[in-house]
Amino acid sequence: MARNYELLLLETIENLGLVGDVVKVRPGFARNYLLPNAMAEAPTAEKIESLKAARTIAQAEVSKQRAEREAVIARLEGITITLVRACNDQGVLYGAVTQRDISDQLIAEGYGIDMRAVRLANPMRRVGTQSVTIQFGRDLVAEITVTVKPDRIIELETSAAPSKASASNDEEADDSADAQEAPTAESDDSKAERGTKSARKGREKKS
């Protein structure tokens, strides 16, 4: 296994270190990114000394940035933002909601959230509500709620109980069935009455 490279950072790189830090990185990351972009070099005592002032300034900036981010995270926790999007009758969006959309909405509402801080595994493709993580670094985390609403009134198909119209149709069907049974009962009573009259007339003739 290739040994990690030890390099001196010539500028601050988030999640890696401050300018003037000596860090260990994978060979591929060093050769393909840090060294070609002049972001790091092999450390020497003279170079480390020359970067002390820049490192002090960077530390102050990082401390200030962290304080600002802590305040933003505290404000963000539990908030809900709403996005209105065009969709079809089934609630499927014509354009998915991405990290950029959420970041833009948060900025519009007064929260300075860069797109990279929005942790969205997959774009939102339907109307609805979803919990989204906002994260700075490794330990500054907040959960917000993102609600996507349609730009018009739509009726989403559901598997809920039968509608009032269906119930009304069922009642009408029951009434119709009762109405069909009623004449049958009346007809039987008429037949019984006619039988009784016929029997009476027969007895009168014999007498």
Secondary structure elements and pairings:
Layout: E1 5-9, E2 22-25, H1 27-34, E3 40-41, H2 45-50, H3 52-76, E4 80-85, E5 92-97, H4 99-108, E6 118-119, E7 124-126, E8 128-136, E9 140-150, H5 164-206
Parallel strand pairs: 4-9
Antiparallel strand pairs: 1-2, 1-3, 5-7, 6-8, 8-9
Provide an overview of this structure:
- This protein is of the alpha+beta class and 207 residues long.
- Among the domains are: 5-73, Ribosomal Protein L9, domain 1, CATH 3.40.5.10; 76-150, Ribosomal protein L9, C-terminal domain (Ribosomal Protein L9, domain 2), CATH 3.10.430.100.
- Helix content is 44%, strand content 23%.
- The protein is built from five helices and nine strands.
- It has a four-stranded mixed beta sheet. A three-stranded antiparallel beta sheet has the order 2-1-3. A two-stranded antiparallel sheet has the order 5-7.
- A hairpin with a 3-residue loop joins β8 and β9.
- The longest helix is centred in the last third of the chain and has 43 residues, at 164-206.
- The protein is elongated and about 70 Å long.
- 13% of the residues are buried.
- The model is unreliable at 158-167 and 179-186 (pLDDT under 50).
